[in-house]
Write a structure and sequence with these properties.
The protein is α/β, with parallel strands linked by helices. It is built from 12 helices and 10 strands. Strands 1, 2, 3, 4, 5, 6, 7, 8, 9 and 10 form a 10-stranded parallel beta sheet that branches.
């Protein structure tokens, strides 16, 4: 699948999950990654919002080190003006995937995320150094995508937190606890709000669900051994590969920590995760080679409550 086809499929996917009753649809930002076409999340969000009518559309997320806060405010001001009450502003501080990408983006280090966030939010409250039309006065919900210290930023600014178990569940639970205990109410949120991000794959059998995880796990392992994230491949191709020991190790590591199985098994695991994390909402990702199987997984999950999908 080429980049153009993947982007068109993403917009069609937004329409499909809206029909299934999902609450949000978020798109991400990656640069210089051969297997990922999502380099301009606000542009893709506009396309998804324009092709739907009810579902909230957002970014998971826009990486502030890559952009001037003024431009980000202007972009979300335009989005919210065109699709009022349907836009979410997910914000992160991750750097580019490789050093050449970071240089091309003009990054040297992550910079002062607090200063970037303060400036960005100020454009919406009309307290910025200039007026970022049409952002002033608009209240686009802002979310902080966090790993580690990012949870403290979300608490300090009184913003909803989006967090995953990338550094292990224990670290995630500690960050969530710290966020809830130090949260400061703000004009953006009166109470702490935690959205837990996790990968979920559902199929008719546990084995089939596990196979849905294989393409992404292999691409992650390949990226860690070759410095390049490749397009997803069919699971049967991957399982027939002869992997080098280090690649096999990363592949097996990438398969851990996800939720997969039949709908009954996945529902039980999600309930348990909700209890452990006190999550207010789930942000679900099912990334796999087979687009039909991917949609079918979301169809199964739609019979539960209303999780938030990302492509």
């Amino acid at each position: 699948m080429g980049h153009a086809e993947a982007l068109r499929d993403t917009v069609a996917f937004a329409q499909a999950v809206e029909a299934l009753g999902y609450h949000r649809f978020w798109v991400s930002e990656h640069h210089g990654v051969p297997g990922v076409a999502g380099s301009a999340p606000t542009v893709l969000a506009a396309a998804a919002a324009g092709a739907t009518s009810r579902i909230r559309v957002g970014t998971g997320g826009v990486m502030l080190p890559n952009h001037r806060p003024l431009v980000v405010a202007e972009q979300f001001g335009v989005l919210d003006s065109l699709f009022p009450g349907r836009i979410d502003m997910g914000l992160g501080r991750s750097l580019g995937f490789t050093e050449p990408v970071r240089r091309a983006l003009g990054q040297v280090e992550s910079g002062d995320f607090d200063a970037q966030l303060t400036e960005l939010l100020g454009y919406f409250t009309d307290t910025g150094p200039v007026r970022a039309y049409p952002a002033p006065g608009r209240r686009v919900p802002a979310f902080v995508l966090a790993t580690g210290a990012g949870a403290a930023v979300a608490a300090r600014y009184g913003l909803p937190l989006v967090i995953g178990g990338f550094r292990g569940e224990e670290a995630m639970l500690e960050a969530i606890s710290g966020y809830r205990s130090t949260f400061r109410p703000s004009p953006w949120a009166e109470e702490p709000y935690v959205m837990v991000s996790t990968t979920v794959a559902v199929a008719e059998t546990t084995e089939d669900a596990w196979r849905l995880l294989v393409p992404e796990a292999w691409s992650m392992a390949y990226s860690r051994t070759h410095g390049e994230f490749p397009p997803l491949r069919a699971p049967e191709e991957i399982l027939d590969l002869t992997m080098r020991p280090r690649e096999r190790q990363y592949f097996e590591e990438s398969l851990r920590g996800h939720i997969y199985g039949t709908l009954t098994e996945a529902a039980k695991s999600l309930d348990e995760l909700a209890a452990r994390t006190t999550a207010d909402e789930f942000l679900l990702t099912t990334s796999t080679y087979d687009r039909t199987a991917q949609l079918r997984s979301y169809q199964h999950l739609a019979t539960l409550q209303s999780p938030t999908p990302t492509p």
